[in-house]
Amino acid sequence: MQPSLLQGFPSTARPAGPQLARHLPVARVLVESSLPHLDRLFDYGIPDTLDHAAMPGVRVKVKFNGQDLSGFLMERVAASDAGHTLVPLAKVVSPVSVLTPAVRELVASVAARYAGTVSDVLRVAVPPRVAKLEKEFVAEGPDAPAAPEQAEQRDATQVQTGAAPANLPGAWAAYHNGQAFLHHLAGGGSPRAVLNPLQGYGPAGWPRLLAEAVAAAYASGRGAVVVVPDYRDLDRLEEALHGLLPEDAVARLAADDGPTPRYRNFLRLLAGTARVAIGTRSAAFAPVRDLGLVACWDDGDDLHIEQRAPYAHAREVLLLRAEQEDAACLLAGHSRSTEAQRLVEAGWARAVEAGRPEVRRTVPRIVNTADSFEQERDPLARIARLPGAAWRAAKEGLERGPVLVQVARAGYAPSLACEMCREPARCGSCQGPLAVAGASGTSAMPQCRWCSTPAPDWHCVHCGGRRLRKGATGVIRTAEELGRAFPGKTVVTSSGDQVKAVVGPGKALVVATVGAEPVADGGYAAALLLDGDSLLRRETLRAGEDTVRRWFNAAALVRPAADGGLVVVTAADTAAVGALLRWDPAGYAERELSLRMELQLPPAVRIASVTGPRAAVEHYTGAVAAELASGGITLRAAGPAPVVLSGPPSPRRSAEDVRTLLFFPYGQAPAVTRVLRVTRAAVAAKRSSEPFQLRLDGIDVL
After folding, report:
1. Does pLDDT of 2 surpass 80?
2. Is 27 helix (H, G, I), strand (E, B) or coil?
3. Region 149-158: what's the mean pLDDT?
4. Which are the contacts of 178, defined by CB distance < 8 A and separation ≥ 6?
5. Edge-to-edge strand order for the sheet containing 606-612?
């Protein structure tokens, strides 16, 4: 980023300013703004009165174009090439340097990779300020503790808690390369691994595996960052870590905890009193000192994607950080994403897997109701939502413990269709899909899923019919039907806003949507994976990969086959089902990646999507193509094509928007992303077109 002249402040009209600092009197400030053309450093003078507080990384207030704007002081230099008298800093908001040099470098790298602005990335990396906590932080003195005494005390605590290097392998002993990975990590090395745990519960579950990896890094005197998808995973990981490490060594960063606890833990990491950061996606930027390990659990979960520009994925942030800080990296999940498989095949990471004898000993028995054997026993199994094999598995499983039922959709009847012509039922106001939220009362009336408008007098615009039928069955309807099929049994639901983290060992039917499955104490006796064909038929490139991930996550919660554990999957006999039957997530990821490479689709290549009004999209993509062509680079483009809305239209999402996809190889990615970023800033500065969205590596655009 290059320094720039400030507009509107002629030096001849400006009165004499305050006395500037004698040493490094020029501050380079990043103004907090999402405008692409302001994504650069601006030079300001540092008054002598602010010399002590104006350190790199602090929050500041500056005058910009007649307004008071917030920003971050990125660096101090001896002189400016602006060519005019500099405007002095208006204020140092806080003397706490919330941006460490490592995080500043990481933020710049993430913005460059995703062709976004540094200000947008900083909004994610640095939590909102809590002034009271900062006053306490400054009063205590962040640099007061002496490092040698702390290190001795920490080593002593590790021995007491059983986290010393000699005791590290634990649950990792069941995996090939597992012990080698931990010993390398505990010895101060930086290994990189992709791990596929077999169990999701109990003392050998994934929280224990990740906790032991963190303990190995901690034993070497280094810190760690672990990112998980949601608060349920975070609670389980925190509990496992507290069993191995001192409680004050772990800091939890999650927006759901509220601004005060989040910022307090952020300051603890900044001071070095906590060495391990765990949390959801924004925790990838945690200011951990002496970073030794970055880890990500279930990197295929779309919750790892930031919902605000530049839409960075936590996995990619951690990979960048591992490279920049020479830290170890661990990607773990019951299944394996194609992105993780690409790292393994490229030799960047090593696979850590269990041998087949251990797999057979640990995982449940898998049955597919669509195979030839089950079809002979039950000819209607292919069309029944609950085939005979699934019903028997539930009945027998309830004699031994809880039974998990995984369904694809929330609600009661999440989609409705005309009974006569089978056309989807649409709202008369906004053309959104109609649904039924409940089974009785006013909630049984069809209403729009987009605008919530009731439709008591609905009629089909195609055939004039007035009767509706369920196009799909949701979790509430499924629980209702199972309650009637198994009278006297407890039925528990987990979906939407009522997601349960754990259930007891009692004999109950647990009906959950995909991704909302609670963990059963001691594991489930059986699991029914319903609506498999619906999941596989979704119109997305990653339908199979995502379905396999959800199946493995549910099946890992079931007891081993030796203890009667059984999983019944109701889906056509496909490669995805075969991977579950063989318990071979790596094989499926390898097959899927080879197909993507053959077709030159992500993650074999990178992708940029440009979405917005047709004129704006064509203007921007044309400018990008021309600039790249001058450098000898030609992009493969698809579009512009109309965007199919998955929700109601909004000021930022119009039914007339189009999308163009740009594909480019990894070798050309630095040059392409630089041109994408620079051209976007130029277009924004000239205001030559309407606003549009630029997004890189979005998993939902194909």
Report:
1. no
2. strand
3. 43
4. 169, 172, 195, 352
5. 636-642, 658-664, 606-612, 693-696
Cis, peptide link before residue 95, omega less than 30° from 0? no
Q: 26-31 and 365-368 as β-strands: parallel, antiparallel, unpaired?
A: unpaired
- Give the position of tokens 């290059």: 2
Q: How many CB atoms lie within 10 A of CB 185?
A: 30
**Within its chain, how far is the Cα of 306 from the centroid?**
6
User: Which residue's entry shows tokens 């489930």?
Assistant: 524
Omega prior to 651 cis, within 30 of 0: no
pLDDT digits (tens, 9 = 90+) for 465-518: 888 887 777 888 888 888 888 998 999 999 888 899 999 999 999 999 999 999
Dihedrals φ, ψ of 386, to 5°? -125, 85
- Burial of 687 per CB tally in 10 Å (0-12, 13-18, 19+): exposed
Strand runs labelled E in 473-582: 490-494, 502-503, 508-513, 519-520, 526-529, 566-569
Instruction: Encode pLDDT of 609-646 as tens digits.
Output: 999 999 999 999 999 999 999 999 999 999 899 987 66
Q: How far apart are CA 498 and CA 479, in angstroms?
A: 14
When computed from its CA atoms, the radius of gyration of the chain, rounded to whole angstroms, is 28
Task: Enter the tokens of residue 507.
Answer: 């004999």
SS (H, E, C) 152-207: HHHHHHHHHHCCCHHHCCHHHHHECCHHHHHHHHHCCCCCEEEECCCCCCCCCCHH
Neighbours of 647 (CB within 10 A): 9
Backbone φ/ψ region at 534: left (φ over 0), alpha (ψ -120 to 50), beta = alpha
Q: Contact, 553 vs 545, CB < 8 A?
A: no
Tokens at residue 380, please? 């209607």
- Give the H/E segment covering residue 1: none
A 10 A CB-CB count for 344 gives: 20
The neighbour count for residue 422, using CB atoms within 10 Å, is 13
DSSP state of 512: E
Sign of CA dihedral 115, 119, 123, 124: positive
Distance CA 15, CA 9 (A): 11
Mode of pairing for the β-strands spanning 276-279 and 250-253: parallel
Smallest Cα–Cα separation from 282: which of 229, 223, 320, 206?
Answer: 229
Angle at 103 between CA 58 and CA 668, to 5 degrees: 130
Report the alpha-carbon distance of residue 23 to residue 52 in Å, rounded: 11
Report residue 664: phi and psi, to 5°: -150, 145
CA gap 503, 506 in Å, rounded: 8
